[in-house]
# Entry
Amino acid sequence: MISARVLGPMPAFLRTEAGSRGLNRATEAAGLPHGIEHEDNRFITQRSLMVFLDECARLVGDARVGLAFAPHLTPAEYGVYGRYMLSGPTLLDALRRSRQALRWHSSRDELTVDKSGPLVRFAYRFGSAGAPTYENVAYCAAGVLLNLLRAYLGADWRPERIDLDLRYARAETRAQDVFGCQVRCGADRIGIFMRPETLGVRAPRRSFSSATLADVHRSRARRAPDGVSEVARELVRIQLMDSGVDLEATAERLGLGPRTLQRQLAEHGLQFRDLVTQVRVERARELLAERDLSITDVAAELGYSAPAHFARAFRRETGLSPRHYRRSRAAPAM
# Structure
């Protein structure tokens, strides 16, 4: 999975180009709740990102819409993780920070800095690279990497070249116009090539306070979910935010069939309905801690048709009614 912050300005762009109805279509196709791009502690599947970009391309009539997005995608859109990268005193520090905190941003992705040749390669491997709808993700990722470097080297700086892990070169000319340098396809990962002396360039004066790795930990609260049970659990949380939980929709967003998902969960000693119950109870505890929400509000938020149904399910899992649980968690008088 990957932080929802990667969506950055893309939903706003789509709303401008295709209207609110178009944005609704794209987010629904990708299984995303509205506004999720602003949340530091929410993750989406790599597949959902690819579906969203694919829908954007269809709605605006540009098969390579990622090249339209690329100049506008920056680490500053990534919340505290982006601020942590941009707090590095030098460009090399920023690249090291991007790698150090990556596990709090995404799972199965890789960032590397290769200084073994005459040029330095800052490279990125997307967890689902090579998927049929990956092309626009590659353009967007190259834009983010390039704009991280330009935060230190200036908006007009151009790399020696950019490699893309795409099997074909149909868009090389347009990509070269967008990125301002030579672009080659057929690489094993996305790579930005630069001269070694650029690594020592110091950061310009910043308008924000520095961020630490501890700040990233606090803002994300947990590492990016990985493995089928963690990812399925996160997808259920997302569905609870926006609509009812559905096995078929969860499996689809994982690129699996429903039976395959159930079988893989069973290998971890889980059934889908039990996983949904666990997530609902976790969310119920969080909602009940907000004392200005009524029990009826909490039940509706969790998708129960009646407060009594919620109360029975909650008591079955915790041994307490929602009302008694809330009382047991009451804060001591100040």
